[in-house]
Design brief:
Blueprint (H helix, E strand, L loop, with lengths): L11 E3 L9 E3 L10 H12 L1 H6 L15 H13 L4
Antiparallel strand pairs: 1-2
Pfam family, one: DDE_Tnp_1_4
Protein name: Transposase, IS1380 family
Length: about 90
């Protein structure tokens, strides 16, 4: 007979929806991603406005009809990539 282990309650963390998709963290294993930490970083950045404030330090001299991404978005992409270790 194998020893029985007390079952601990499943810990689940719910985050804000991202583009209408539910984000949930749990510690059961299964299909995982190593990039999940960026959800916390992005949420913290959104609450504190770090990249937005930093982006406001730059003047955007690009012609607006050719702009797809704001300076804030470009800055956030670059910083998040560095944080995740891609650069």
């Amino acid at each position: 007979m194998s020893p029985s282990h007390p079952r601990t309650p499943r810990q689940v963390i719910n985050f804000s929806k991202q583009k209408g998709k539910e984000i949930i963290a749990n510690f059961d294993g299964g299909l995982i991603t190593s990039d999940a930490g960026i959800v916390w970083i992005a949420e913290l950045d959104k609450k504190l406005g770090i990249t937005e404030k930093f982006g406001n330090c730059f003047q955007d001299h690009r012609h607006q009809s050719y702009v797809d991404h704001s300076v804030h978005e470009l800055l956030a992409q670059r910083l998040y990539g560095i944080i995740l270790g891609y650069e």
